[in-house]
Amino acid sequence: MSHTLRQIQRIRTLALSAGVMLGMVVTTFGPQFAHAAEVKKTKRTLVEKIVALPEATVEQLQAAERVLIGKYQCEFGKAVSIDRHARNNGYFDLRLGQQSWTMKPVLSSTGAVRLEDVKGAALMIQILTKSMLMDPKRGQRLVDGCMHDTQRAADEDLKRNPRPSVFGLNSDTPADGNR
């Protein structure tokens, strides 16, 4: 009987040891397997997120003619670039560092060109002398003071040849009209 009891104890010890070893293996390699599954899932969802863009409207194509394409130098040494979208006429690819967005141009009533991200995550506003990139969801500027070569030339021209005030004021008259 003592021989059988020893055998049962050995089997139980062996089973407990195997369980402990299996637990150590799962603890060591489990997170790596979970991460690999997560990466596969992420790759799949990125492919699923690519959606065909709607065909550009006439208004969108008219606004697209006013978009300044190329590189913009921004404040703090940052740079933005805008290129025509490779597959969709009337859309643009905007890049800031490692971030990129597909943008749809919209002409505003003020004459400014708005480039709106098709997913709503970015907004670039182009006026005569500068551009600004914003995160509309957070209401924060991503970069400001961005200037395309065309905007830089317009800014220099305005400095050399200032326009008359639309309010009928001279540049030497204060805004309140008092001297």
What does this structure look like?
By secondary structure, this protein is an alpha+beta fold. It has 2 domains: 1-50; 58-160, Beta Barrel (Lipocalin). Helix content is 37%, strand content 25%. It has helices at residues 2-49, 58-64, 149-160, and strands spanning 70-73, 79-84, 92-96, 99-107, 113-117, 123-126, 131-135, 140-146. It has an 8-stranded antiparallel β-sheet with strand order 1-2-3-4-5-6-7-8. It is elongated, with a radius of gyration of 31 Å. The model has no long low-confidence stretch (mean pLDDT 82).
Question: N-to-C terminal Cα separation, in Å?
Answer: 116 Å
CATH architecture of the largest domain: Beta Barrel
Strand order of the largest sheet: 1-2-3-4-5-6-7-8
Describe the global form: elongated
Rg for CA atoms: 31 Å
Strand content: 25-35%
The largest pleated sheet is described as: 8 strands, antiparallel
Low-pLDDT segments: none
